[in-house]
């Protein structure tokens, strides 16, 4: 849990000139993640918008509550919940449209993130410059999908048949990271089998995200074979290469980069062997050959199957195993961007908030697998919905947990979820495999501030704490 305080300076043109953020954080009985989570909070709070001057101050306190652990978002949802409400309040105080105010100030391609060096996770970080961003398009596409124009229609905000109901639309800008710069590392091994298929060994763990499929796609694309010809073996430390772990939105970028490097080396070995021994048309020059549809192809329609190459390499000329192992780490952590929209109905008599619609437009670079990426966004929004509206651990004055059972801890079920829409805005991240960057955690970041914005649009009341339980909302409406 955190309490965040923001102070900012804005010039007459609506440009931020500085921001000061203070965080008071409860780390329970032991330190564990007490340092690193708060550093991520400070980094995200002071990097989403470009700031000529910034200051971050944090106090982490020990209490007699349970020890916190890592959770999807890892400090960024807290930062964005406070930051986006603060930005909206600044815009309204300036007499500006909040979306335009944010657009004027959000970080853009070519700009550096000064806090990246100061706010590494538990240590000094590394310089970061924005190389790709589709945030402008995310905002436009998300607004179109949610029906943002209704926000300006006073009649839409009320329901004549239900006079206690107020409708609202809200929006939040999000930025996350892709792995931990200078820390995360993944490795992969690829072996050409006698039948022309490939074994892909990776230390990365598929937690249900579909990463095995994505890594196989990267290998298949590089090797010019159908996906079915790549057989994935993952997560067995007895025989797979090392991987730091499936966390920090890193698998596609870090482990995928290792797969791509290994596949490129295997590809080079294949065409080199074919040029020397099997394809006289190449004149011994592997640069004239390429892999496509499970074959090595060359000038004048010449082609030889990967099965032929594999058998020839292992049993005839040179007699060697075509395989490669590669490792990958990065001093870069290219941020994905997103625009999160929410539509709500607020019952002013009971304080009940019903979220009718969530739309997230996400720039995750090139989506290697749009289906699994969309699933990440939709699942993340539902998880974030519980974080924003219902999930809360309650304690008495002595630090005893009052709702220790899942029956008293409100998690959204699938049939209770609102209408969901995920929009993938494609950009090309030059440092990622095939232009990819992260998508796993950013869906957690924008739902709470977007709902807060929507509640304000519906009722004119700003609620600064989550979750938005009926009691908390009712009290805010009647203060």
Structural commentary:
It is built from eleven helices and 14 strands. The chain has 479 residues and is of the alpha+beta class. It folds into two domains: 326 residues, Aldehyde oxidase/xanthine dehydrogenase, molybdopterin binding domain (Aldehyde Oxidoreductase, domain 4, 2-Layer Sandwich); 145 residues, 2-Layer Sandwich (Aldehyde Oxidoreductase, domain 4), CATH 3.30.365. The strands form four sheets. Strands 4-12-13-14 form a four-stranded mixed sheet. Helix 1 links the parallel strand 2 and strand 3. The protein starts with a strand and ends with a helix. 47% of the residues are buried. The model has no long low-confidence stretch (mean pLDDT 95).
């Amino acid at each position: 849990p955190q309490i965040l305080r923001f102070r900012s300076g804005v010039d007459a043109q609506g440009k931020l000139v500085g921001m000061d953020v203070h965080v008071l954080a409860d780390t329970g009985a032991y330190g564990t993640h007490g340092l690193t989570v708060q550093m991520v909070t400070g980094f995200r709070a002071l990097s989403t918008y470009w700031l000529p001057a910034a200051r971050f101050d944090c106090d982490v306190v020990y209490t007699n509550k349970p020890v916190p652990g890592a959770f999807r978002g890892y400090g960024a949802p807290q930062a964005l919940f406070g930051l986006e409400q603060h930005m909206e309040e600044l815009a309204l105080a300036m007499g500006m449209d909040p979306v335009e105010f944010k657009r004027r100030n959000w970080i853009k391609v070519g700009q550096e993130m000064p806090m990246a060096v100061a706010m590494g996770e538990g240590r000094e970080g590394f310089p970061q410059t924005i190389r790709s961003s589709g945030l402008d398009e995310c905002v436009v596409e998300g607004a179109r999908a949610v029906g943002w124009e209704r926000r300006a229609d006073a009649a839409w905000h009320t329901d004549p048949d239900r006079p206690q109901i107020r409708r609202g639309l809200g929006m939040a800008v999000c930025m996350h990271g892709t792995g931990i710069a200078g820390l995360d590392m993944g490795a992969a091994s690829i072996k050409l089998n006698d039948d022309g298929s490939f074994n892909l060994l990776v230390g990365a763990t598929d937690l249900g995200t579909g990463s095995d499929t994505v890594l196989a796609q990267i290998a298949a694309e590089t090797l010019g074979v159908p996906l079915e010809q790549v057989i994935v073996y993952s997560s067995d430390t007895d025989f797979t290469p090392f991987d730091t772990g499936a966390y920090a939105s890193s698998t596609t970028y870090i482990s995928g980069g290792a797969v791509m490097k290994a596949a490129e080396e295997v590809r080079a070995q294949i065409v080199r062997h074919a040029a020397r021994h099997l394809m006289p048309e190449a004149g011994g020059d592997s640069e004239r050959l390429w892999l496509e549809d499970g074959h090595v192809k060359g000038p004048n329609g010449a082609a030889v199957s990967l099965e032929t190459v594999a058998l020839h390499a292992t049993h005839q000329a040179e007699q060697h195993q075509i395989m490669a192992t590669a490792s990958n780490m990065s001093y870069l952590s290219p941020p994905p961007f997103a625009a999160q929209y929410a539509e709500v109905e607020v019952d002013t008599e009971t304080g009940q908030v019903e979220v009718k619609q969530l739309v997230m437009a996400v720039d995750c670079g090139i989506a290697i697998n749009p289906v699994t990426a969309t699933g990440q966004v939709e699942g993340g929004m539902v998880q974030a919905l519980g974080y924003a509206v219902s999930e809360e651990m309650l304690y008495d004055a002595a630090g005893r947990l009052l709702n220790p059972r899942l029956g008293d801890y409100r998690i959204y079920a699938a049939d209770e979820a609102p209408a969901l829409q995920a929009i993938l805005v494609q950009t090309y991240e030059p440092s990622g495999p095939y232009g990819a960057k992260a998508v796993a955690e950013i869906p957690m970041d924008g739902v709470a501030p977007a709902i807060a914005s929507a509640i304000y649009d519906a009722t004119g009341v700003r609620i600064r704490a989550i979750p938005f339980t009926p009691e908390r909302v009712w009290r805010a409406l009647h203060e």
